[in-house]
DNA sequence: TAGATTTGACCTTC
DNA sequence: GAAGGTCAAATCTA
């Protein structure tokens, strides 16, 4: 399939270009008075980019290559160029076609799983895991052998932007504070990772329900306040597929220039999508299936705590079973010392 | 009133 | 046939 190949090449070139851009940024950082963390982060990003590119090259010819898997995913069956009018005008027919396509391709759909530990804020409200996208719940199902029902979500912009990303959220049996989130498909909508706060996330919505009528949750919350989770565990499956998913990590072009570190961190935490994308990006095993460990600096946690932020998911990832060329990328971020002139908004920095 | 959630029914896969 | 996934009408909420 020619379009598939060109898509591969495009992705590959994009990765390489990104790596180059990041290297340029690193060079600027080396010249400027940037912190070691900033540099280390850039190095990590560069390595990640090239690692992805290498993986694409390695897998490019394989029939089971992740790129081809993505290309066969239902979301790709409908061109992203198809506007809402197409969706609306041929709704019933298209729905049927989509349904068929989804059914046929369900097994091949890009899929990965995150285990998200919900964080309990100081006010006892459980913090949901925001992923920077807005989701609409379309179903809930009791799963055999599972204590908790599984919830099904799809992108809010599915109809308007033909975004076929979906996710399933299931509370863990062993640890009710852990949510197993399975993502399917890639976001093609332009809303992911934007600095505009998304509508309430599924987890938030679930929290709302639980706050209404679930004393268990409240007890859990109160109990967990004393043991504030300092990390969030992300396990990944089907890493090859994850490889092809977007990593919408992107700083907005907001003027970081003159803000203090605390202000910067606060702004990061204020911008849920930004913060989650930050986590997602760091956690993304896109580079060949590595599980990165990321622990927020205490400074960040303090900010989150002081603001009684319920969204302050603090994330880590298991380092088990990594096949990443990057050996155990543990890099706990110390309080970030940002170069006030660091060009976050320069094109290509965070893609 | 528009948009989101709930939930029973239906469809697909195994 | 069972289980998982999705649809869509009814209901809720801001």
From TrEMBL:
Keywords: DNA-binding, Nucleus, Transcription, Transcription regulation. GO terms for biological process: leaf senescence; response to hydrogen peroxide; response to ozone; response to salicylic acid. GO terms for molecular function: DNA-binding transcription factor activity; transcription cis-regulatory region binding. Residues 186-229 are annotated as: Disordered. Residues 213-225 have a biased composition (Low complexity). Residues 130-187 form the WRKY domain. Belongs to the WRKY group III family. This is WRKY domain-containing protein.
């Amino acid at each position: 399939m020619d379009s598939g190949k060109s898509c591969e090449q495009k992705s590959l070139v994009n990765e390489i270009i990104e790596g180059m851009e990041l290297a340029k940024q690193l060079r600027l950082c080396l010249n400027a008075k940037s912190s070691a963390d900033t540099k280390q982060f850039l190095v990590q990003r560069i390595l990640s980019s090239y690692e992805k590119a290498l993986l694409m090259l390695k897998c490019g010819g394989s029939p089971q290559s992740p790129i081809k898997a993505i290309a066969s995913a239902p979301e790709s069956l409908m061109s992203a160029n198809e506007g809402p009018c197409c969706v609306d005008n041929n709704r019933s027919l298209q729905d049927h076609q989509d349904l068929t396509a989804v059914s046929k391709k369900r097994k091949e759909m890009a899929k990965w799983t995150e285990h998200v530990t919900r964080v309990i804020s100081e006010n006892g409200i459980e913090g949901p895991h925001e992923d920077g996208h807005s989701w609409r719940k379309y179903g809930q199902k009791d799963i055999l052998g599972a204590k908790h029902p599984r919830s099904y979500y799809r992108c809010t912009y599915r109809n308007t932007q033909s975004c076929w990303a979906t996710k399933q959220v299931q509370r863990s049996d062993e640890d009710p504070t852990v949510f197993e989130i399975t993502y399917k498909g890639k976001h093609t909508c332009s809303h992911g990772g934007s600095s505009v706060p998304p509508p309430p996330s599924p987890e938030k919505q679930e929290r709302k329900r639980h706050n209404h009528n679930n004393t268990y949750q409240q007890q859990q919350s109160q109990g967990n306040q004393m043991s504030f989770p300092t990390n969030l565990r992300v396990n990944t499956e089907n890493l090859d597929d994850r490889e092809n998913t977007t990593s919408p990590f992107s700083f907005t072009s907001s003027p970081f220039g003159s803000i203090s570190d605390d202000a910067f961190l606060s702004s990061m935490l204020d911008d849920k999508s930004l913060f989650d994308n930050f986590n997602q990006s760091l956690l993304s095993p896109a580079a060949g299936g590595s599980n990165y460990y990321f622990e927020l600096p205490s400074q960040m946690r303090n900010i989150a705590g002081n603001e009684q932020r319920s969204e302050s998911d603090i994330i880590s990832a298991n380092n088990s079973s990594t096949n990443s060329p990057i050996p155990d990328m543990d890099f706990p971020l110390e309080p970030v010392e940002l170069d006030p002139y660091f060009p976050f908004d320069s094109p290509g920095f965070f893609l």
